[in-house]
Amino acid sequence: MELCTDDAFPEKQHHPFLHIRSRRLHVVLMLMYAFFCMCQMTAHIGLSLSCMCNSTAVALMNTNNATLVEGTESTILMSILENKTSESQELGGGDDGESCTKLEGKVIKDYGGTFIWSVSWQGYIVSAAFLGGFIFSYPAGVLVDRFSARHILSVAILMLTIASLLMPVLSIYIGEKGAFAGRFVMGISETMLIPSINSMVTKWIPINEKSLAASVFTAGNQLSGMFGNILVAELCASSFGWSSIFYSASLFGISWLVLWHLTVRNSPHNTRWIHKRELDYLANNIPPKHPSSVVKKTPWRDMLTSKVFWSLMFNSVMGNMMIALIFVYIPVYFKDVLMLDVQSNGFYSAIPHISNLIAKLIWGYLMDKMRHKKILSPSATVKLSQFASMMGISVSCFFLRYMNCATPFYALVLLSSVSAFFGLSISGFYTSLLSIAPSHIGTLTSLATVIGFVGRMFTPLMISYYKTVGTAEEWGHVLLIYVFASATGGIIFLLFGSGDVQNWDYSKRHNTARPNALVAPKSDKDLEDF
């Protein structure tokens, strides 16, 4: 019997990813919802803290170098209320840009919070999640490499949901230390979630679809930014209060756990509702992983001496700095510099996420097309994407330094530009992360998370160092750091980055053969028949 070759049936090797019956698309959409839940429970801490804390009282403490003593909160809040009338009169006369800039640093935009937590403590609370992730990143990667990514992902969302439910209780009865503890647990959960998602992607998505798939499942971040910021702002301004922010977020986590348990399995070969043609296509196009019975040794020496690895790590730090800026501090920037009220802040904060979503989906689709048609190699696509992303961010941040409350439209355009250019990096360093060592994806992801979380921890501390009142000048110092850091990351990745499987990956070192997958012949049922 004559075997069918690829040339004999070229059409059999394709099964569309973007199809209503594509099972891997269903899995990617569930991963997108997981990202949405994670961001809804963790990423809105900047706006949440603005609702929880009294910004005027905190600024008064900072300018007077005062230390809050237990029992003095009511006194400070009362003195603020006595001065509200005169401040409102000042602000009321500041409709034009000139008056706005005169009031900068004198009138603080406050969202009516009751906690008087210093700027430093607020920075520690934001950083707590990053600290928890930093400590637990490597163990999380090892767990994903050895156990079911599906179950670890379930545990991660469950921990996030419980921590979100307990956050109001911890904040009210324990204070800032309780909020720190809750955020720390969230960080541990987040660092379990990311390598689990990456592991699921390596099992379900062929390499020529990874840019688009990554753009789709990470779109959960932008969907949370688009709708979550508006929801958080409305809840903050409502009679439900800030605690409803955390309770509502936990409901998303509960719904995801139910759907995930009922619909998704670890790999295409043990899932239901998948067509044979798609199963054969995935078997022929996904690089095989080592058998679970084989004890895999991580090639530490080759990995840690690889220029590709370190270019990826540097850009992981930069990517995490951008995540902290876009998801945590954009609402704070709008409050401090543009002096927006809470509901306007929610609307403004959603727009950069829309630009990010549109940019990364279109760019990811174009990069996959160019790679599929062999116009660009995998390495060329990730290098082009990352370089364009980082240089675009650098230029946008440079001009953003000159914006203030008199130029809200231009500030919004530039922040949307920063967010859009960051979206291109999904087809850059993130696709590279998913591609260079599929057999060690858990370990590689955990290392990228550990090193990358340095950027997330550094960002709140850097902003707390420069920001006292929150003037445009203070934010200008922060943005200048982003100008140089992003440009450096783009140049390094252009020189040393890669999108190809490295020689130190298990499949290359052991010449793992691709499994003999039977491909459905042309006469079998096609997509329209099932």
Question: What would you say this structure looks like, in words?
Answer:
- The chain has 530 residues and is mainly α.
- It is built from 21 helices and no strands.
- Helix 1 (23-42) runs parallel beside helix 7 and helix 16 (378-400) packs antiparallel against helix 20 (472-496).
- Mean pLDDT is 79; it is low at 1-12, 66-78, 80-95 and 513-530.
- GO terms for molecular function: transmembrane transporter activity.
- Residues 59-501 form the Major facilitator superfamily (MFS) profile domain.
Structure characteristics:
530 residues, mainly alpha, Growth Hormone, Chain: A, 0% strand, globular, disordered N terminus
Quick take:
The protein has 530 residues and is mainly α. 70% of the residues lie in helices and 0% in strands.
Run of helices and strands: HHHHHHHHHHHHHHHHHHHHH
Report the total helices. 21
Poorly predicted segments: 1-12, 66-78, 80-95, 513-530
Classify the helix fraction into a percent range: over 70%
User: What's the number of extended β-strand segments?
Assistant: 0
Secondary structure blueprint with pairings:
Blueprint lengths: L22 H20 L2 H8 L2 H9 L9 H20 L4 H7 L15 H28 L2 H25 L2 H29 L5 H8 L1 H19 L5 H21 L12 H10 L14 H5 L2 H30 L5 H31 L5 H23 L7 H17 L4 H7 L5 H26 L5 H25 L9 H4 L21
